[in-house]
Amino acid sequence: MDLETLMQxxxxxxxxxxxxxxxxxxxNEQDLMHLSIIELGEKVHSSKSSILRLxxxxxxxxxxxxxxxxxxxxxxxIATTGTDLIALQTKxxxxxxxxxxxxxxxxxxxxxxxxxxxxxxxxGYSQRKVIEEFSKMLMICDKxxxxxxxxxxxxxxxSMITKEDIVLFVSLSGETDDVKQNILSLNxxxxxxxAITTFSHNFxxxxxxxxxxxxxxxxxxxxxxxxxxxxVGLSVLVDLIFRxxxxxxxxxxxxxx
Length: 257
Hints:
The protein is α/β, with parallel strands linked by helices. It is built from 13 helices and seven strands.
């Protein structure tokens, strides 16, 4: 499914301003990947709230998810209703594990062990449920871990986070606009950042000292307006990160005996 198909599907709900915004997006798809919602609003002489309403009319939770759809759609990776969804799930898991097998987790394990506190922030509810389990498992290893539940608390916590800590961001797109400034601020203060996102070139990964990727292929549901997407790949990757950390701790313990 592409943007033009969505436009046709929801055409009765779209206002004249919506069509203007979508017309600009279709003509500037490549530029869209680098525009924040405020910057897009300036380009089309519209407000942030108008663009948010438009993305929700098209079936998305917000602008970040819409941009992710546009990137995936361009790569022709939106699964259609004829796709074998069980095979798709297996493929996402296999690709996540295969990529992880080619990745060295040693430096991340060392950074987690060294950190006074592991701060965890997820950009969505579903991602937060996964990272909450990771945080609980870290505490079993006597590693202090704090979940930051909402953006307001992330902003408040910024002054308390130090170079002796590490901050882990979990996201679908890796492009959530209102978090980008937090990551840039952590970079400026030389505080280690971990990004866990879907496999793509994205802002979070680009500005993290440790970047890890999972696969999550969107798919359509017959008769439904929304695009469905499973985070099983994220669960697999986070579990792998924890197991790699425990393996590292066990090795350190055995070598110290």
